[in-house]
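Changelog-adjacent note: as of this version, every example in the card shows the full chain rather than a window. The one below runs 157 residues end to end.
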Amino acid sequence: MTDHADTFWKRIDDSNSGMLGLTEDPRLVPMSHYSDRDAGALWFITARGTDLASSLTPGGKPAIHVVSDGGQGLYTRIHGTLSLSEDRAKLDELWNAVASSWFEDGKQDPDVQLLRFDLTEAEVWATGGSLSFMYQIAKSKITGDKPDMGEHYSLRF
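Full-length structure tokens:
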């Protein structure tokens, strides 16, 4: 993987949420993601009855996940295929206190639904984060130079 890909995966690991939806539907919903670099995927835990989970068909649908995390210096629009998953081992691996807050019977709750998002491409803006932003703005005022706002690149998975 390139340095850009490394930056992407490290920063997406440090960021924990974004807005997820299907490309055919302009409504995006806030969701916490769990990265799986080896699989080139992001995972989500949701409820079976949500509009998003209910709209997925076998084989999945084209989807988008948008992450905007100024503290981590990551802004990205990720495209891929979102599908339902019944992978209990992956659910066991991902399950945590945050997820358990949403389900009365924990991971055994019949409403728990795992989603797999297989990434195809991403457009990424990687900055130094909020402190770096403030430094760059102050520096530009002193030097007259344009602030260095980081890197902008695209990735294919």
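Structural remarks: Residues 3-156 form a domain with the Pnp Oxidase; Chain A fold (CATH 2.30.110.10).
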